[in-house]
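The protein record passed on below.

***
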Amino acid sequence: MKKLLLILVSIFSVEAFSQVIIEKDNCLIVDDSVKICKVSSLLINKPYQFEFISIETIEKKKFNLKKLVNVAEIAGMGGTALGGITKDANIILSSAKVLNTTNQVQSVIWTADRIKELNASENAKKIVGKEFVISKWEKSNVEENIFLLYGKIDNRDYKINFNAGIGLNEIIIKK
């Protein structure tokens, strides 16, 4: 379910969240106003669900049959699952845009007590309120203008789907 939601958010994030991301001079420019370069940092906000959808740790490369099966299941669902819920997803994501804007007005100071109260996994709670330092990025989907950011949080390697992270309010761009 997490992967399906990530795929849907990635596909519709540019339209629903109206974010325009341009790669220029080794920086990403978001909506012609915010510039993010390598070694810039983002703030990790609370997870959208119990676990983060757009943020994942980068583990050492090893073969994982369970992940292969999950990818095969999603691929097997293919266009029927996505096509059947596309209209609903647009409505949900448009509503999320309004909620995201409201949430950004809120204070992003994460105290230990506030983090403890979150309805989130222990792994998610460990990185809430921390800085993600960008080391590199790549364009995951050229047609949809989706970027994957790579970097570190507390000396651990992470990968963030930038578009989904902004859309789900799991990351906050420091201005």
